């Protein structure tokens, strides 16, 4: 499920997000597919981070496509 947040701690930094864009996760295998989906769904290219840099233990960091542990986070930063 998509999570919508207005900020997130990434690698110790508080990063402001555009809350209308969800945070999604993808494994390496599905990254290209998820990137295309994000652009199609929200008409904007997401910013990407390594999933393990996202410091939110409550977040379900599994690939949206296959449920495997995710390697990449897709989100949209404010002002980017
Ligand atoms: Zn996957």
From TrEMBL:
Entry superkingdom: Bacteria
Pfam families linked to this entry: YyzF
Protein name per Swiss-Prot or TrEMBL: CxxH/CxxC protein
Organism: Brevibacillus choshinensis
């Amino acid at each position: 499920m998509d999570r919508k947040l207005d900020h997130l701690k990434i690698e110790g930094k508080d990063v402001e997000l555009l809350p209308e864009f969800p945070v999604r996760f993808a494994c390496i295998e599905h990254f290209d597919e998820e990137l295309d989906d994000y652009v199609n769904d929200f008409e904007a290219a997401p910013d990407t981070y390594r999933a393990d840099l996202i410091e939110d233990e409550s977040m379900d960091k599994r690939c949206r496509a296959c449920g495997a542990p995710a390697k990449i986070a897709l989100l949209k930063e404010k002002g980017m």
